[in-house]
Specification:
Layout (H helix, E strand, L loop, with lengths): L1 H30 L2 H17 L1 H5 L4 H17 L3 H5 L24 H10 L2 H12 L4 H8 L3 H16 L4 H8 L3
């Protein structure tokens, strides 16, 4: 029995080491600040560790963990929704370390994009982050958000429309070549 537990622990540790940067990036985009993102990932991994036998044998453990993280994020912020959606300023935001393979990281004003994302309602923000930043398919995004593909399309379209009307951001998109 000890060998199986050690093997599960080793498998979980390998998963965490391999997925930590991506999970942290997704959590950062959902929460808007580094410390909250780290807390979200840690609490998610605590939940997942307890059920690792089930999670590790899932078809896509990363998708399972992402879903747990999104649910945890949604639960935490339901009560403080207004405060979360409209922060008084962005002084508390800690900037994400740019990923060299990430096209958005190559943009001149990443801060404007992160600030704009922080203004979106949480479901629209989740849809935009998962579809366009994490590059998930509509089906994968729907599974992660626990909704239909139609809801993903609707939330993503509304979120993108709101981002397009933000002054300064639209100019960056046309000048920087974002699509």
């Amino acid at each position: 029995m000890g060998d199986r537990k050690a093997a599960r622990d080793s498998e979980f540790q390998s998963f965490v080491i391999g997925r930590w940067p991506r999970l942290l990036r997704t959590a950062f985009l959902l929460t808007g600040e580094q410390h909250a993102a780290e807390d979200l990932v840690q609490s998610t991994l605590e939940q997942v560790y307890v059920a690792w036998r089930k999670v590790g044998s899932a078809d896509d453990p990363e998708a399972y963990v992402r879903r747990v993280m999104i649910n945890a994020h949604a639960r935490k912020h339901r009560r403080r929704l207004k405060e979360f959606l409209a922060p008084k300023d962005d002084s508390g935001l800690v900037r994400e370390v740019a990923d060299t393979g990430d096209r958005i990281a190559q943009a001149e004003d990443r801060r404007a994009l992160l600030s704009a994302l922080a203004r979106l309602p949480s479901r629209q923000r989740e849809a935009v982050v998962l579809r366009y930043w994490e590059d998930l398919t509509e089906t994968q995004t729907a599974e992660a958000m626990g909704c239909s593909v139609g809801a993903v399309k609707s939330n993503a379209a509304k979120g993108i429309a709101k981002l397009r009307v933000i002054p300064g951001l639209a100019e960056m998109v046309t000048q920087g070549g974002w699509k």
